[in-house]
Amino acid sequence: MRSERLFVLFGLIALTSVWVTLILAQSQVPPYLRQLTDHPAPDYSPCWHPDGKSLAFVSEREGGRQIWLLDVGTKRARRLTRTGNNWAPSFSPDGRWLAFISDRTGQPQIWVMRIDGEGEVRQLTRYHEDSPTWSPDGNLIAFISRRTGEPSLWVMNPDGSMQKLLVRFQGREIRNPIWAPDGKRIIFWANFTGEPSLWEYRLDERTLVQLTEVTGNIEKPSCSESGWLVFSAAWTGQWEIWALPLVGGKPIQLTELRRQAREPSLSRDGRYLAFVSDISGNLDIWLMETPSSMWARVSKK
User: Fold this and answer.
1) What is the value of pTM for the model shown?
2) Is 237 exposed, middle or buried (0-12, 13-18, 19+ CB in 10 A)?
3) What is the percent of the chain where pLDDT is above 70?
4) What is the mean pLDDT of residues 177-181?
């Protein structure tokens, strides 16, 4: 009997601890944040639809990695992919197509599908690829390929034709390319100098420019038509979201959660920021409105 009472007592203590943890976590949520997903399984890699009303994300809620489409207003989600593991979603500028990575035939390759579910899912590449991203005019897809044995930056037509190598540095990493709003620059993470920082490749000039002077613990950029770049960095000792005007300047800190704030995605107009955080105890997607200075288009003085 005594052992049974002890078992029940320890169970109550454990349950109380869980509830206290959840209450404390909720009490630490700033009022300017809105939780978009709430599931025990990890939700991550948000990507805004061009209309600003929905976003794609990756979830493991039904086994494996699958891409879902979330209505931001209602928080209702529907599953888009069903075969293999799928990740790194990217919308075409007209919002009709989704490019993504899938391992359904073995190694990770780039595929495209219509988000309305019509037509067949098409395979665009046949090597080890990652991080597809559409150009603003929809005429090109930039991506990372390991076909040469190390990560390198490539572009191709949306049908998979005319695949072209842009940037390759032996022994260095390149990740997470995105297009600048003018379509003339591709921004990406790289460790060309030995430390991670953000770089841009200028297609017309075929030159590289370093964007962030503070190096180390930085990842996954996103930008808006208003001319702002956001990214996650652990410069303060914890992963937070930072913003930088593409015309130049110093980074400003957007979040101060003292919890993980990673994988930011800016809406096309720059007004809303979706990102991944463990504030609730699980990896979920959160939403915040950006400062009004990020809504207007920035330009050189």
Assistant:
1) 0.88
2) exposed
3) 89
4) 96
CA-based torsion, 203, 205, 206, 208: positive or negative: negative
Beta bridge partners of 273: 266, 288
CA 300 from centroid of its chain's CA atoms: 27
- Tell me the residue length of the chain: 301
Which of the pair, 18 or 85, is modelled with greater confidence? 85
pLDDT band at residue 138 under the 50/70/90 scheme: very high
Judged by DSSP in three states, 269 sits in coil
Among 11-15, 104-108, 248-252, the range scoring the smallest mean pLDDT is: 11-15
293: which DSSP letter?
G
Query: 2-17, pLDDT tens digit by residue?
Result: 444 434 333 433 433 4
Q: Counting beta carbons within 10 angstroms of the beta carbon of residue 255, is it exposed (0 to 12), middle (13 to 18) or buried (19 or more)?
A: buried
Q: For residue 253, how many C-alpha atoms fall within 13 Å in the half-sphere facing its CB? A: 12
Q: Is 248 left (phi over 0), alpha (psi -120 to 50) or beta?
A: left
- Contact partners, residue 268, CB within 8 Å, separation at least 6: 48, 50, 52, 224, 225
Q: Name the residue ranges covered by the structural domains of the chain.
A: 1-30, 33-294
- Tokens 């990896």 found at: 283
Whether residue 70 contacts residue 64, with contact meaning beta carbons closer than 8 Å, is answered with no
The answer to whether the CB of 225 falls within 8 A of the CB of 236 is no
Please tell me the predicted confidence (pLDDT) of residue 195: 84
The second-level CATH assignment, the architecture, of 33-294 is 6 Propeller (2.120)
Q: Are 143 and 131 in contact (CB under 8 A)?
A: yes
> HSE (CB half, 13 Å, CA atoms) of 213?
4
